[in-house]
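Subject: for your reference before the review

Hello V.,

The reviewers asked for a structural picture of the protein, and I figured it would be easier to keep everything in one thread rather than splitting it across files. Below is the amino acid sequence we used in the manuscript, unchanged from the supplementary table.
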Amino acid sequence: MATSLPSSHGPQAAAGAVRARRASLVGQLGPAWALPAVLFLLGFFVLPLAGNVARGFTSPDGAFTLAYYAKLFTDAYYSGIVVETFVVSIISTVACLIVGYPVAYFIVRHAGRWNPLIVFCLIGPLLTSIIMRTFGWTVLFARKGLFNNWFMQLGLIDKPLRIIDSELMVYVGLVHVLVPFMVLSIAAVLKGVDRRLEESAQILGATPLQAFFRITLPLSMDGIATGCILVFVLTNGSFLTMLLLGGGKVNTLSLLIYQQFTLTQDMSFASAMGNVLLFCSVIALVLQLRYVRRRTVSA
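And here is what came back from the structure prediction:
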């Protein structure tokens, strides 16, 4: 009696037909799939950004002007704030690199089974409002905060220390908020560095420190560059930390833009300052792309 064998091509044929129908539908719609995202970006990003750029070159009577930029770069007060903005961004970036690289290296090479917990502790604060994270430092180090209360109860100090409203606390707050971006950028690249390269260098006579500086560190430069660009750009646009922890000791363009919008209501001048920050961010991103492309070509 002949028996009919079950066809193994039935499910595969059905799946192939479904894929063919989906491909046909995608082919019919074409670029229309991206239309909702394009419209959203156009309405809520491109047009407001273009309006802000145009406002920075428009005088109150509607004429084209460069007076806001001349004021920004020739007036001693405003030019000093521009310089201070870049100084704060550079110092914060270097501090995040110094703090973040060892953490990223430990996560990739030595964390082991503790890796998920460390990554969670690193990413967890990003899920909290930056206002709450920054205000937490005020709760700890204010004149009547936990730090001063504990030290006075222990008899270590006679009167509360003035810690908040200082430049140091501004940098502490910035590093606390931005160092996860540095760690994640470097860790992503370090994961791709083959450990056998370091082992080969040590077999050939290099010490672990020499292997790190000659092998690991150069191969992780892409992550360092990405992390530095991210921290630099984010520091340029940060004003809450200066506002809550600086006490007027640190003035940057982002804080000045906030003051222009909320106090003086000079929208055109605030737009001009925003354009300067935007231009600096674009330059930083272009430099990063050129650096990565050059390393890719040389490799």
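For the response letter, the relevant points are probably these. The CA atoms of residues 37 and 43 lie 10 Å apart. The mean pLDDT is 85.

Happy to draft the paragraph if you're swamped.

O.
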